[in-house]
Every structure is written in C-alpha cells, then in structure tokens.
Design a protein that fits this description.
The structure is a single chain. The chain has three helices and no strands. It is mostly helical and 82 residues long. The protein starts with a helix and ends in a 6-residue tail after the last helix.
Length: 82
Amino acid sequence: MAFIDLLQIVLIFITVIFAILTVELRDLLHAVIALCGMSIVIGVLFWLLSAPYVAVFQLLVYAGAVIVLFVAAVMLTTRKGS
C-alpha cells in the first residue's frame, strides 16, 4: 500500500468524523466549525486525487464563503440561555 493510499484512507476517516460531529454537536457554532474542517479535508482529498480546480473551488466556495455566511448567521441570532 502506497503512502498516498494510506493518507487518503486517513483523510476519509477524518472526514467521516467531522461529518458525524457536524450532525451531533449541540452547540451550533462548534457544528459550523466541524463543517468547515470537513470541507477543508475534502478539498485536500480532491488535491490528492489530481483535481486541483475542484480542490480550489471546494476551499474557496465551501470552506470560505459558505462557512463565513453560516458563522455570521449564528453570531447574529440570539441564543437563549447558554
């Protein structure tokens, strides 16, 4: 098994962990941060699969713009009893 194959398996495992955390975390801000981590790891996986255009698109649009919108929406809403 090559090093790249092992790295891809580890990154897929990390992606699954971030996906589960995104769904299961009770604090919405922590869930958004887990979603951002998942988007970054998916971008790295695309890069390893020799798809740099898709990787850059993943990092800029999803890990960048969408997460900023989610964080802004979370911060602008009021939370009842922390």
